[in-house]
Amino acid sequence: MKFDVLVDVSLQRGLLDPQGKAIEDALPTMGWTNVSNVRVGKSFQFVVEAETEADALRVAEDMGHRLLANPVIEDFRVVAVHPAARVTIEDAP
Amino acid sequence: MRPRIGVVTFPGSLDDRDALRAVTCMGGDGVPVWHADTALPDVDAVILPGGFSYGDHLRTGAIARFAPIMDAVREFTAAGRPVVGICNGFQILCEAGLLPGALIRNRSLRFVCRVVSVRVESASSVLTAGLDPGEVLQAPIKHGEGQFVASADELSGIEDEGLVTLRYCAPDGTIDDAHNPNGATNAIAGLRNERGNVVGLMPHPEHAVDPDVGPTGGQPLFASLLERAG
């Protein structure tokens, strides 16, 4: 069975995020004076073929630990694991 | 006998040829090594050169650490043999867990390309063995992701054990924020492992051996490596 998986990776809280800072500094010039703590991360979407949702989650967590995030600087979170939609981009005409 | 220094070419490596040339200029034999090979040729030391291996995808050095040649490089380091990572090579060594910490986007968000001064902090590495702590060298840097960071625990370990080999500094050796080109923690420009056989650095010694084209801060570093390797 196929599962759609979404994993988020972000810089650890204690680290200065230069990209987030640059975006934050630009916000007031566009009128958003009430926004702070901007952090920029990465989002990974993929499909896992596994017996159960728990198995798919284990694969995603293993990938997060060993590849998608660098534990020295980043945290990851498996945001979603759910049965893959029947129609995928590859199926589109 | 001239020491044989292997230089690994990954897809996206840029400074492999300069590294080979610098080895030759300094009296060694440069041996090209291909990333897809599973064994190292008969070499006395290995250089992981600068560049943008695998397009820096995911994170700098994150994909290169899985290259087939890296298992052999890992064994080579475990045997206490010298391995030097320059710029992208430093990033690869950190991603591979062969050096502590990580290198993230420069604090300025800008790619920095200029000659900098670095101060030798430790002579207990294959790259700095012939130098005196306090000595100042000039060499170019050219990177967008050279800001060294580490967790608080790792950082105190690094400093307590004297693993910092080079720090960014003013030409007179003073360490201050104005001469830290990327915001590196504690102005760290180069690092070694506990044994001193694995060294990573952001400045490019391979671009700094020929007085006709710039500073020569790379000469003593290569001289040290060649002597240790031979």
What attributes does this structure have?
heterodimer, A: Mth169, Chain: A, three-stranded antiparallel sheet, 2 helices, 27% helix, B: alpha/beta, Rossmann fold, nine-stranded mixed sheet, two-stranded antiparallel sheet
SSE layout and pairing:
The complex is a heterodimer of chains A (93) and B (230).
Chain A: E1 2-11, H1 18-26, E2 41-49, H2 53-68, E3 74-83
Antiparallel strand pairs in A: 1-2, 1-3
Chain B: E1 4-9, H1 16-25, E2 29-34, E3 45-48, H2 69-78, E4 83-86, H3 88-95, E5 102-104, E6 112-120, E7 136-143, E8 147-149, H4 152-160, E9 164-169, E10 188-192, E11 198-201, H5 218-229
Parallel strand pairs in B: 1-2, 1-3, 3-4, 4-11
Antiparallel strand pairs in B: 5-8, 6-7, 6-9, 9-10, 10-11
Could you please describe the fold and organization of this structure?
The complex is a heterodimer of chains A (93) and B (230). Chain A has 93 residues and is α+β, with helices and mostly antiparallel strands. Chain A has a single domain, classed as Mth169, Chain: A, CATH 3.30.1280.10. Chain A has 2 helices and 3 strands; from the N terminus they run βαβαβ. Chain A has helices at residues 18-26, 53-68, and strands spanning 2-11, 41-49, 74-83. Chain A has a 3-stranded antiparallel β-sheet with strand order 2-1-3, covered by helices on one side. Helix content of chain B is 21%, strand content 25%.
CATH class group of chain A: Alpha Beta
Named at the architecture level, the CATH assignment of chain A is 2-Layer Sandwich
Helix content of chain B: 10-25%
Rounded radius of gyration of chain B (Å): 16 Å
Strand order of the largest sheet of chain B: 2-1-3-4-11-10-9-6-7
Number of helices of chain A: 2
Q: What's the domain count of chain B?
A: 1
Strand content of chain B: 25-35%
Q: Which superfamily, in CATH terms, is the homologous superfamily of chain B?
A: Class I glutamine amidotransferase (GATase) domain
